[in-house]
Every structure is written in structure tokens, then in C-alpha cells.
UniProtKB/TrEMBL annotation:
Region (Disordered): 1-26
Entry protein name: Cell wall-active antibiotics response LiaF-like C-terminal domain-containing protein
Domain of life: Bacteria
Species this chain originates from: Nocardia otitidiscaviarum
Amino acid sequence: MSGSNMQRHASAVKTSELELSSTGSRRKVNGEWAVPTHIRAESPKGTVTVDFTRAFCPHREIDMRVDVGSGSVVLVVPRGWRVHLDEVRTDAGRVVNRVKRKPFPGARVVRVSGHVESGVVKARYPYRYLGTWFKGRSPH
């Protein structure tokens, strides 16, 4: 990310909360974006994807609140980050944490809390493309 992009993103981070909602459709935040300290994701029926892979994140910790009906919330984090899903309550839903590798020193932490009725909250690393998978490295 160039210096001017970082300045633009740093000024955008002043927004303290991001609210995302999906009702029967898909909502995705990805690419270069500024991560606030608080994120709220509601998904009664659709899918909300929050991709931190190329995001500008000056914070060590991000608090995320989820409210999932029969939909899903997917978090995509870079390798080296941590995701805590211990505060997510479920009824008939599922909570899946595929972020299992040892975090980097000083790693960013996404702390997720909230409720899942019959849907899914999932945290994972970005998918690797076939060529980079054979070479054993991440595309990002």
C-alpha cells in the first residue's frame, strides 16, 4: 500500500464502527479498506463476508459483534492473525474456527461475540491459488 493510500486509510479509520447487514443476499467487505475498532455484522438469512487480507488495520484488537439467524458470517484473516470465537453463543448453529496456526508476535486479534440461531460463523485464512499452493506460499 503506497504512502498516500495509507494516509487516506488512516483518516478513514476515525469511524469507530462499521455496520454490515445481509437479508437473503451477500454482503462483502474486501480489498483495501480501513478497519475500525468495532464491527457489527447481522445476517438473518444472507452471507456477510469480512475479508481482512488486504485491509489497513492500525489497531491490535478488533471487537466484532455478530447476530446470525439462518445466514452466515465469514471472517477471512491473514496468516499470523488470531480470532477468538469463545463469546459466540449458539442455538442450533455452528461456530467454526479454522485459524489455528501460531500467531505472529504482536498479531492482530479479532474478538467475536454475539449469537447464532441456526446459521454459521466461520473464521478462516484466505484460499490459496493452485500455483501458490504448490509453491507453499500465500498469494498475499
